[in-house]
Design goal:
The protein is of the alpha+beta class and about 110 residues long. A five-stranded mixed sheet has the order 3-4-2-1-5, with helices on one face. InterPro entries: BMC_CP (IPR044870), BMC_dom (IPR000249), CcmK-like_sf (IPR037233), EutS/PduU/CutR (IPR009307).
Length: about 110
């Protein structure tokens, strides 16, 4: 007797969340070369879903502090910002606050290395 095969369909359904909010203070200069971005004293990394939210986060970050966008990808939800350590931290905290308060996102704690 043949066994009936089951078919499983998996679907990616993004929630409203900021899954990574990290600051790298005084990174090794090789990181800038590998990332293809200008050298600064800190790199901030954010990962968001839905992925288009990275555009909103970039706008909030650049308005909140003196940071530059190192990388933005609306298809993966990745955002990299660069600037002074305090400015990058302020920018990420502003993004976290806005997304949580205004858009009701789940947010990630700010981590540092």
């Amino acid at each position: 007797m043949e066994q009936e095969k089951q078919r499983v369909i998996q679907e990616y359904v993004p929630g409203k969340q900021l899954t990574l909010a990290h600051v790298i203070a005084n990174p090794d200069p090789v990181l800038y070369t590998k990332l293809g971005i200008e050298k600064a004293s800190a790199i901030g990394i954010l990962t968001l879903t839905p992925t288009e939210t990275a555009i909103i986060a970039a706008d909030i970050a650049t308005k909140a502090a003196n940071v530059d966008i190192g990388y933005l990808d609306r298809f993966t939800g990745s955002l990299v910002i660069v600037g002074d350590v305090s400015a990058v931290e302020m920018a990420i905290e502003s993004v976290n606050e806005f997304l949580h308060e205004k858009l009701k996102f789940s947010i990630a704690p700010l981590t540092r290395s």
